[in-house]
UniProtKB/TrEMBL annotation:
<dbReference type="InterPro" id="IPR013538">
    <property type="entry name" value="ASHA1/2-like_C"/>
</dbReference>
<feature type="domain" description="Activator of Hsp90 ATPase homologue 1/2-like C-terminal">
    <location>
        <begin position="23"/>
        <end position="159"/>
    </location>
</feature>
<comment type="similarity">
    <text>Belongs to the AHA1 family.</text>
</comment>
<protein>
    <recommendedName>
        <fullName>Activator of Hsp90 ATPase homologue 1/2-like C-terminal domain-containing protein</fullName>
    </recommendedName>
</protein>
<dbReference type="Pfam" id="PF08327">
    <property type="entry name" value="AHSA1"/>
</dbReference>
<dbReference type="InterPro" id="IPR023393">
    <property type="entry name" value="START-like_dom_sf"/>
</dbReference>
Length: 161
C-alpha cells in the first residue's frame, strides 16, 4: 500500500499523509494534471469522482463531485495557488453544494502536494492546513483519514495500467 504515514497536528492545524509509489515523479504528476485519471483515484473506491472542471493552472479552479453507492452526490472545489510542474502544487480545497458552489459553513483547507524522486519511484507528501481546530476536527470525524488513505492507495493500480 502506498500510504506509509498519516500525521495529524492539532496545534499546527495540519493533516499530513505520506505515500510512496513505484512510478517516476512525472507519471505520478500526470495523475493530478489529467482529470480523467484523477477521477479514477480521487475519493474512496466506493465514492467515484467526476471532475466537471479542472483548470490546472495558477488561479484555475476544479469542481467535482463524488457519488455514493446510493447515488448521493457530494461536491468539492479547488482553487490553485501555485504550481511547480512535477514538484508541487498548492490549492484551496472546500466543500460544494449540489450546484458545485462553495459551502460557506464547511471547513476549507490549504493543501500542498509535493513529489520527489526516490529509488526509481516517487514519495508524495500531502499536507492540508486548516483554518481552525474545529475545521480539522470536523473533517477527521467525517473520515478524511480513512477516505484519503483509500483514495491514495488506488493510485498504484492506475500507475500499473
Amino acid at each position: 500500500m502506498p500510504v506509509i504515514d498519516v500525521t495529524t497536528d492539532t496545534d499546527a492545524l495540519t493533516l499530513t499523509i505520506t505515500a510512496e509509489f513505484s512510478a517516476p515523479v512525472e507519471r505520478v504528476w500526470e495523475v493530478y494534471a489529467n482529470p480523467r485519471q484523477l477521477e479514477k483515484v480521487w475519493g474512496p473506491p466506493q465514492f467515484p469522482a467526476t471532475f466537471v472542471q479542472h483548470d490546472f493552472v495558477v488561479g484555475g479552479h476544479s469542481k467535482y463531485y463524488m457519488t455514493s453507492p446510493e447515488g448521493e452526490k457530494f461536491g468539492g472545489w479547488w482553487r490553485f495557488e501555485a504550481i511547480d510542474p512535477t514538484t508541487s502544487f498548492t490549492f484551496q480545497d472546500g466543500f460544494a453544494d449540489a450546484d458545485l458552489n462553495p459551502v460557506d459553513d464547511m471547513p476549507v483547507s490549504k493543501n500542498n502536494y509535493r513529489f520527489e524522486p526516490i529509488d526509481g519511484g516517487t514519495r508524495a507528501v500531502y499536507t492540508g492546513v486548516f483554518e481552525s481546530a474545529e475545521g480539522l476536527q470536523k473533517v477527521l470525524e467525517m473520515g478524511v483519514v480513512e477516505g484519503s488513505t483509500a483514495a491514495i492507495n488506488q493510485i498504484d493500480e492506475l500507475l500499473a495500467a
